[in-house]
Design a protein that fits this description.
The chain is α+β, with helices and mostly antiparallel strands. It has 24 helices and twelve strands. It has one domain: Cytochrome P450 (Cytochrome p450), CATH 1.10.630.10. The longest helix has about 30 residues. The radius of gyration is 25 Å and the shape is globular.
Amino acid sequence: MDIVTSVYEHRWMIAAVVLGVYLLQKIRAYYRLSSFEGPWSSGWSELWHVWAILSLKSHLRYDEACRKYGPIARVGPNDLITASPELIVRMNAVRSPYSRTSWFYRPTRHRVDVDHVFSEMDEAKHTDLRQRMASGYSGKENVGLEKSIDIHVAEFVHLIRSSYTSTDALVKPMDFTEKVQYLTLDIISAISWGKPFGHLRAVKDVDGIAHSTGDGMWFFNFSLGTGLYRLLHLPLVARYVGPSEKDATGFGRLLANARDIIRERRERDAANDKRSDMIASFFRNGLTEDQILSETTLQMVAGADTTASAITVILLYLMTHKRVYVKLQSEIDTLRPGTQSSSTDAIVSDAEVRKLPYLQAVIKESMRIHAPVTNASPKRVPDGGDTVVIDGRSIFIPGGTNILYSVWTHRLDKGIFGEDAASFRPERWLQDEDEGKLANMNRVHELTFGTGRYQCMGKFIATMEIGKVIFELVRNFDLSLARPDQPWTEGSFGGLLVHKDMWVLASKRQEEVV
């Protein structure tokens, strides 16, 4: 009782000491990064940054900050953001001393007890995991990868032709964002597990999986912005609010189906099954059942949604720039005249797609001007700090600071892409005679998929999907927006742009070659 009484008698002194310590910490944090300008509240609190993330427009908020305050701006007491490609490459380099930051990567875990390649914080474990997974992603141990993509692209074309082709007598609007998500989910499930979800054939969201990935993106963004993941990742809390393999639908059902498939495949492999695909590659390279479950379910969100976003962005810019659409159709027709491509064997090969210069320019330009992944992907400055040179100026960044990327800013940089950087013009990738400038443009474009030890492992698969889908859509249809006044709804979820409600009209080619 004496202790309680003493504390009560000195309560105001104790409160003053606690408040004083708190204020000293705030002042210290403020002055630690005081040489970097930013929104007025960013030096004292996380409010501006929380608002930017929860607004679903973080890419635009980061862009505003970099344009107003310089290539490195302050967005929080311990957070900076940069638009410098040089600094981004430096942070991601193979031997870079920079490391991942927990507040961004930890919320991506969908199981609190198992990390995947994106959430793993231990750099040595992360590197080892990437090395063991690389052959499964590259196609070296997945010889049927392209054929699997072709099957579902053919189903996609057939679905549009059979159910959503508009005529003079009847208009059939199609929610393209919904159907392209069905496509990318079917492809990634077939590649990962050898068994597609079947969204395209059923023309519906099987087991609510597409809906659950959308909910997952919203929940991830909310946890990211509020820091709620720290509570939700507690085992006792996760047990009651997290997805369960006993769930009848949604992400829990996805986990249950995945585990059944993985266990079945383990038994087949034990019986000398010679199948060569992603799961087989993961088994051969020593991944455990739980690791494979975590990695392959990550692909359902990261792989499917990012590719769907890229395809949606490219198609919007094609539909709103008729000159480019017609020019691309002309290039495609020189390679594959005619529109009969509903069979798998008729789908264009990846090798052919990569040889079409204008198609590649269209893809690059669309993803430049409206990057589907504006990923903040913050990195932690090594202890002791780092001195970087940006625009000829030497800048010291204190150790322990988090640095985010502003992809949106350097994609519209006039110094890199020319005076009309804010305009959609694919020809910029083909007409510039300055080899140095073109090389720099391509270098910045490659940042879409990350660089160095953090480069996207699914890059090869994603670029193959994107090229084939755009080729076959433009080859087979004349596409236009059903609602030009409201082309789509868009939100940034942890740096990934997610699109909904892009209603499209598909009609037969006006000058169809039979």
